[in-house]
């Protein structure tokens, strides 16, 4: 609900997921007063970890893909999500619900690599990682269409992201 645009952003998320082929029944929006949509607010790790674990159990999820400790963009909410998943996987005594569920974290890269688009494929292929996803031209265009659904968030710098970001072409991940 950043800038009181919660309902607009919820609809944009639904549109974006539709473009990606994700059915509405597989989309969960958590609207919790203690988890404000704010890039400057760190969320409570234990609360978020509990909510994430409930969702994993309810949907019988066997793979989680999340941000790494850098949150890709330094966004506090993204970093909080990583911390919560890490807390669930590594710290809790009731880890057995995670049995059979693997966690991949998206690698944050430096600013230069972040904005060299497809040229980062060469670098990413040479560096160690547990998984590497290289999108086809069609998949990249689909990802761009999905991002364009988030009209309320398409500020000038996100327009540049659509043009130059390596994350629309290549994503390197590590197992947690």
Automatic annotation (TrEMBL):
GO CC aspect terms: endoplasmic reticulum; membrane
Q: What are its GO biological-process terms?
A: GPI anchor biosynthetic process
Q: Which InterPro entries match?
A: GlcNAc_PI_deacetylase-related (IPR003737), LmbE-like_dom_sf (IPR024078)
A Pfam family hit: PIG-L
What GO molecular-function term can you cite, just one? Answer: N-acetylglucosaminylphosphatidylinositol deacetylase activity
* Enzyme class at the top of the EC tree: hydrolase
The record's EC number reads 3.5.1.89
What does the similarity note say? Belongs to the PIGL family.
Q: What is this protein called?
A: N-acetylglucosaminylphosphatidylinositol deacetylase
Please give the organism.
Sterrhoptilus dennistouni
